[in-house]
Amino acid sequence: MDRADFKPDSIKxxxxxxxxxxxxxxxxxxxxxxxxxxxxMILRVTSSGTSGQNQSKIGFDLxxxxxxxxxxxxxxxxxxxxxxxxxxxVVFGYQPHKGNNKAIAKSAWGFTFTAPALSKDxxxxxxxxxxxxxxxxxxxxLIHYAKGHHQVRSxxxxxxxxxxxxxxxxxxxxVTLPKGSKMTLGGGWKQFYAEACSKQEFYDLAHExxxxxxxDIVEFFGAVEHPILWTTCSKHHFHLPxxxxxxxxxxDTFEEVPxxxxxxxxxxxxxxxxxxxxxxxTDDLGILHDEDCGCGIHSPYLEIVGRVGLEDIKTCAAxxxxxxxxxxx
Amino acid sequence: MIxxxxxxxxxxxxxxxxxxxxxxxxxxxxxPPLQPEMIYRASERLYQRLLQGEFDALAAPLxxxxxxxHDTFLAYAKEFSGAWLKKKVEQELGKDxxxxxxxxxxxxxxxxxxxxxxxxxxxxxxxxPAYSVLEGLLTGNINLLKLPSGDKGLSVKLLQELIKxxxxxxxxxxxxxxxxxxxxxxxxxxxxADAVVVWGGDAAxxxxxxxxxxxxxxxxxxxxxSFAYANSKTSDLDLAALxxxxxxxxxxxxxxxxxxxxxxxxxxxxxxxxxxxxAILERVNAERGPASLGMRSKSAxxxxxxxxxxxxxxxxxxxxxxxxxxxxxxxxxxLFRNVWIKPLPEEKIVEILKPYRGYLQSCALLVDxxxxxxxxxxxxxxxxxxxxxxxxxxxLPLEAHDGEYALLRYSRxxxxxx
Lengths: 329, 418
What we know:
The complex is a heterodimer.
Chain A: E1 23-24, H1 25-28, E2 41-46, E3 57-61, H2 62-78, E4 87-94, H3 103-111, E5 117-127, E6 130-133, H4 135-147, E7 151-156, H5 158-170, E8 182-185, H6 196-210, E9 217-223, E10 226-231, E11 238-239, E12 245-249, E13 262-268, E14 279-289, E15 301-307, H7 316-328
Helix pairs in contact in A: 5-6, 5-7
Chain B: E1 2-4, E2 7-9, H1 14-29, H2 36-51, H3 56-66, H4 70-77, H5 82-93, E3 101-104, E4 107-113, E5 116-120, H6 128-138, E6 142-146, H7 154-165, E7 173-176, H8 183-192, E8 195-200, H9 202-211, E9 217-222, E10 225-230, H10 236-249, E11 257-262, H11 267-288, H12 293-309, E12 313-317, E13 320-324, E14 338-343, H13 349-353, E15 360-366, H14 369-382, E16 386-388, H15 406-409, E17 411-417
């Protein structure tokens, strides 16, 4: 802070937020940063970096957890995702296991409490001491639930979900899940970047195979370094929630670029008292849009365009298939 | 996409086609040997079609992605021309390379193909997988190619067109899209091969060692790191040309400049040199036009992180940087027009560089004549295989590859008592 010559007193209005020094998520991957004593951190989570060495480790104290809970409660309430109806939960992701500290696994598990759960099924199951992908089981369960009356809620990586949908289509599955069912997606589009058309392809496929309407599909976004539950509106846009702000920055100058232009995504939130997560810059590129999308929310919305580096945009199918082939071996 | 016996097959056929190699290979080996002239002619016809712009539409997006110009494309393509290939064969294997030659009374030597090559191609240069197969063909081998992940279809297209020009090449080319994680299929492919040719980094090579048979020949074209060597007498002209090369290649090739070793170890000299080079790099970068937003963002984050780590003395300009470090380690830069600058006094060249023997390749030697006479032999003793001018990334005509001729490695000598 001293090196950046930053004075907390200089932050007086929203326009001053740009003065807060940013920490790249890259830095969190090599340093466990904390703003309170370690013994107060009652929850520690890691990002879903695949290699193990490149994971951010972030701690949360009780105060921050309670605030995050309030935030989650309000976000889910605002987007009408709480339900009192008995629900079958289907998670296209990891089954919880005490050795898995990944934030994504924890949030997926948390999601299964948004309605009274009749059942919880996981696509990546903990079997005999290791994780195994079992899409067959999920497919069977979904077909079974379609015959019943209870709503179904799925949650998962878009890539896994897409792959499963494609496989079900190949298997000739055309069912309609009971009324009130929702498909939720989280954990980043990774292989789906920058292809607006592919999202449409995704929605069409979800409709064809499981009878989902576009409105039934909700997307989440967040990160261990930015623990805010961003939720899409009815038009699939991530509007700025009251809990966060975004500054899109020019990579050459780190100055803010005008809305509508692409740049580095700087996410800001005061939520954490346990770690310096106030102003982080991710390794994604994004655009902040001002135009009204017609969903009723008037704040600008964030479009995540892609990862920094070489533009290597693959089609949905190739990406998802690579992911799954990797899992199989 | 699979290319097998000149035909395109869907991925679902992969397992069956790989299994069919067991019977196919012996029958292909029984055919009369491949004649290099046949390949020169086919390749030349393909090259002519390329000059007429037939492949521009296919190449344009790839070139745009790598930020390469159409001229660079034509320069690369020239290496596919018939005349060039003929020269290459003569340079690497000598005149009339496959004739039986008597070396002593009753003793003849003959050069033959290894037999079957499995090429594990890397994805960083789009032309490379097809070129690797072409080198295999020039030495008369049957070529099995595993495409790199993210291959955009150029390799299959080029090889398919080559087969159209010369249908008798069809049995000698098989392209599979096996993912690197499908160890069983790779093991089976390796089982049929006399040698595995692997392009890529340490991870790729280690991967191959896992599925290759214990005594199998593995030909490694590994990732290399290249650099420039300069001192206080290096001219602005040379530094500007080096900056051009850095902007043109974005430092993504084995032969492109990652950083500059400076002949001296006074921190003040290094800082002054960094300032001088930064100004030139910034100017050239502005003239050339910036790297893509994605590239600039990636390196900006890396430089920001370095600043937070308190590492190096960072000299940063718009979209470029030169970072001075006190050590002399040879490392990858942050790429995309960001270089490191490190001390390397002449007398330490061999001692410092020798341990990097597996990674050394090119040096842009940008010093005055007197220093050059002293430094050049030291760089060679340290293990470098290529000394160039400031345009480090551009290949020299008919140059060897990492100090070796590929065609020698893809063929074998047999002694015959007559």
